């Protein structure tokens, strides 16, 4: 197991509440919901979510969609997601354990298949066979989609910067693979973080992004940190 995988697994298994506090601070202008609704109208849609984590995207979608079925491989993340969804007052959701490459869901069951900040982990977690695993996850997305449904991928295009750029050469290669081999369209949006205080900004940036990026982004007084987010999407053909 790589050191990077161990780092993230420790967070996802043991620090889910702190992680949820961090992601709740992102997208202060609400750009993500508008972009997703533009790509695929959300009203009344049946959604299957891959790698739901603590339910950040689940919460966002639940206010508009008909039903959202959200899956994650880490039980601790789902426990936090369940608490958050109950607190939201929404009832049109279902959370369960599920691997991105083998969803416990029927074929052609969803209008929208979506992942947020999950698929890109394949680079650091499985450096030897990330390409094959990527293709498997995308095939699984296509399997669960109804004809005419839409697959959506959401991943970072840079923390602490105002213009989009893949944070590493390996992520750039992954994103190119989605577009060049699989034919995904692409756009980007700003999803800046807004923290409650400089102290909170330092705590949450540092625990997840590490000292180097935290030191680069924070000057002791900042509560807003720029973030660029990429969105990739592809519609399943009607005749499939």
Structural notes for this entry:
This protein is an alpha/beta fold and 240 residues long. It has ten helices and nine strands. The protein has helices spanning 3-14, 16-24, 31-39, 56-62, 75-88, 121-125, 130-144, 169-180, 198-209, 211-217; strands at 46-50, 67-72, 93-97, 110-116, 145-159, 185-190, 193-194, 224-225, 227-235. The strands form two sheets. Strands 3-2-1-4-5-9-6 form a seven-stranded mixed sheet. Strands 7-8 form a two-stranded antiparallel ribbon. It starts with a helix and ends in a 5-residue tail after the last strand. The model has no long low-confidence stretch (mean pLDDT 95).
Key attributes of the depicted protein:
single chain; 240 residues; alpha/beta; 7-stranded mixed beta sheet; two-stranded antiparallel sheet; 10 helices; globular
Summary of the model, kept short:
The protein has ten helices and nine strands.
Task: Set out the fold topology.
Layout: H1 3-14, H2 16-24, H3 31-39, E1 46-50, H4 56-62, E2 67-72, H5 75-88, E3 93-97, E4 110-116, H6 121-125, H7 130-144, E5 145-159, H8 169-180, E6 185-190, E7 193-194, H9 198-209, H10 211-217, E8 224-225, E9 227-235
Parallel strand pairs: 1-2, 1-4, 2-3, 4-5
Antiparallel strand pairs: 5-9, 6-9, 7-8
Helix pairs in contact: 9-10
């Amino acid at each position: 197991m790589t050191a990077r995988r161990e780092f993230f697994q420790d967070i996802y298994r043991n620090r889910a509440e702190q992680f949820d506090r961090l992601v709740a601070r992102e997208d202060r202008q609400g750009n993500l919901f508008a972009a997703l609704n533009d790509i695929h109208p959300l009203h009344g849609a049946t959604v299957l979510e891959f790698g739901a984590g603590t339910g950040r995207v689940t919460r966002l979608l639940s206010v508009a969609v008909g039903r959202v079925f959200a899956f994650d491989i880490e039980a601790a993340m789902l426990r936090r997601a369940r608490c958050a969804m109950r607190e939201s007052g929404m009832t049109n959701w279902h959370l369960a354990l599920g691997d991105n490459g083998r969803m416990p869901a029927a074929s052609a069951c969803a209008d929208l298949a979506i992942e947020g900040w999950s698929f890109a982990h394949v680079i650091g977690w499985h450096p030897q066979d990330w390409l094959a695993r990527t293709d498997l996850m995308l095939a699984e997305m296509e399997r669960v989609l109804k004809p005419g449904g839409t697959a959506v991928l959401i991943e970072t295009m840079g923390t602490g910067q105002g213009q989009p750029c893949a944070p590493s050469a390996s992520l750039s290669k992954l994103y190119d693979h989605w577009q060049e081999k699989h034919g995904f369209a692409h756009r980007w949006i700003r999803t800046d973080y807004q923290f409650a205080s400089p102290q909170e900004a330092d705590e949450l940036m540092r625990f997840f992004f590490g000292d180097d990026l935290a030191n680069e982004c924070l000057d002791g007084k900042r509560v807003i940190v720029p973030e660029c987010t990429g969105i990739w999407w592809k519609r399943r053909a009607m005749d499939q």
